[in-house]
Amino acid sequence: MTDAVLLEKWFAILNKIGINEDGSASRLGYTDKEDAMIAAVVGIAAEYGLKHYADEVGNVFIYNGSGEDNYTLIGSHVDSVVQGGTFDGVAGVLAGLLTLKKIGEQNLNIPVKTGIFRMEESSVFGIACVGSKLVTGNIDEAALKKAANADGVSLYEIITQRGYKTNPAKIKNIKQYLELHIEQGRVLEAKGLPLGIVNSIAAPVRMWVKFTGNQDHSGATPMDLRKDSLVGAAELIVALEAFGRAELANSSVATTGIVRNTPNVFNVVPGETMLGLDIRGIDKASRARVLNETEQKARNIAAERGLKCEITRVSESDPVMLDPALQKSLLQTAEKLGIPALVMPSGAGHDAMFFTELCPVGMVFIPCKEGISHNKEEHAKIEDIVTGCNVLFEYLHPRA
Ligand code: GLV
Ligand code: MN
Ligand code: MN
Questions:
Q1: 261: part of which helix (H) or strand (E)?
Q2: Residue 289's pLDDT is what?
Q3: H runs (alpha helix) in 282-375
Q4: For residue range 80-105, what is the model confidence (pLDDT) as tens digits?
Q5: Are 51 and 62 in contact (CB under 8 A)?
C-alpha cells in the first residue's frame, strides 16, 4: 500500500468520529470525542506493533522501542474547534504515525515518539495547547481554575474529574520536536508551493470584556435613559477590528470570537454583554499596541455610556522563534528531495510553541485548500501530506 492510500485509510477511520450532520467535526479537548480519536489512533498504531502510553495529563505517546533517551518527538493534536475540519492537528499526528511505521519497516534504530497533545484548541476555555503547556510547565493550576466554560465549570474540574493531574512532571529527554501541520492560510497555495518551513509562531492573548448596564423594558425605556450593554460591546467590536487593521503591516490580528448577551431576547434592553477577544501577533510591540488601545477603548466606551466594564485576561503566551539550524536542515532536506519550500511565519498557534525552551523545534506546513481552516471546508491533499512526511523522514534518516 502506498503512503497516500494508507493515509486515506487512516483518515477514513478517524472521520467516523465526532462528525456533525453538516460534515463538520466537533471533537473538543478532554471529552469522549477526543478520547475516541486517541483510541482510534492507538488502534491503528497497534496494527504496526507500535506501543503507547498516556502521561499524567492524558497526552498519549506512541513509540517504537528504539530507546527513551534523546528521542525525536513528533507532536500535534486530534481535538478540533466546534464545527471544525478534519485535518487541523490530525494530519500532524498521522505524519508521526507514518514516520514510526517507516522506521519500523526499515528496522532503523531512530528513537521517535508521536505525541498526541490534549485540548490544543481554545474554543471553550480560552486556553490553547493545554496538554503541551501542562507537561512543559507553561500553565499552573490557578489558570486552570480561573478558566471556565459557558456553564461555569472550570478547566481544572474537567481535567481532574477525568482522573488526570494538573501539576505533572516536566517532559524530558527530548532531542528535538517536529510538527507537520496544515498551513491554515493561503500563502503556499497562492505561490503554488507544496511546503512551508516555519520560522516563527504568533502568540495570542485572550480576554473577556464584560459590559454591565441596565436590563430594561425595550418598549417602555426611552432611548435617552438606556444603558445598553450590547451597544457598548458593538462599539468595541468595530474598534477592535480597526486596531487590528492598523497593524496589518506588522501581521497582528484581532478577533471578537464570542458574544454572550444577557438576556438575549427581543423585548429586553441587554443588561450584560461579554465579549471573548483573541489578539495575536509575532511582533510583541505591535500586539501590545492593539491590547492597550482595546483596553483603553473599552474603558472609554463604558464611561461615555454609563456602563461598568471588567476586563479579564484568560491566557497570554509569547510569540516564539523556531530553531534556525533546524529550519536550515529541513530546508536543505526539501531541496535535496527537489521539493520547493518557503520559509514562513505561522499565524496560528501550535503545540510546538511550548517545546522551544526544552529542545530545538522545527515545523513544516503543507498547503490547505484556499487556506480554509476551523471550518468544515478545511481540506488538504493527501499527496501534500505525503510530501511533508517524506521531508520529515528524510531529515531523520538522510540517504547517503
Ligand atoms: C489553533 O488552532 C489556534 O487557534 O491558533
Ligand atoms: Mn486549530
Ligand atoms: Mn492545529
A1: strand 253-262
A2: 98
A3: 284-305, 324-336
A4: 999 999 999 999 999 999 999 999 99
A5: yes
Query: In angstroms, rounded to a whole number, what is the distance separating the alpha carbons of residues 177 and 195?
Result: 18
Which of 77, 80, 83, 122 is the best mutation target for the ligand 1 pocket, counting ligand atoms within 8 Å of the beta carbon and taking the most?
A: 122
Q: Which of 168, 96, 106, 160 is nearest to 132 (CA)?
A: 168
Task: Using alpha carbons, list the distances in angstroms from residue 393 to 112, 178, 242.
Answer: 11, 11, 44
Residue 123 and residue 79 in contact, taking contact as beta carbons nearer than 8 Å: no
Residue 174: its pLDDT value, please?
Answer: 97
Amino acid of residue 30: Y
Retrieve residue 63's grid coordinates.
513509540
Give the chain's length.
Answer: 400
The set of residues, in sequence order, having a beta carbon less than 8 Å from that of 12 and lying 6+ positions away, is none
Residues 68/7, Cβ–Cβ less than 8 Å: no
User: Is omega for the bond preceding 263 within 30 degrees of 0, making it cis?
Assistant: yes
Residue type, 395: Y
Residue numbers of the chain with a pLDDT score lower than 50: none
Written as nine digits, the cell of 83 is: 464545527
- Residue 81 Cα to ligand 2 midpoint, Å, equals 6
373 Cα nearest atom in ligand 1: 2
**pLDDT at site 399:** 87
Q: How far apart are CA 298 and CA 50, in angstroms?
A: 53
pTM, two decimals, is 0.94
Expressed in angstroms and rounded, the spacing between residue 77 Cα and the centre of ligand 3 is 7
Grid coordinates given for 215: 436590563
Residues 6+ apart with CB under 8 A from 364: 178, 179, 180, 181, 195, 196, 197, 198, 330, 388, 391, 392
Ligand of minimum distance to the alpha carbon of 373: 2
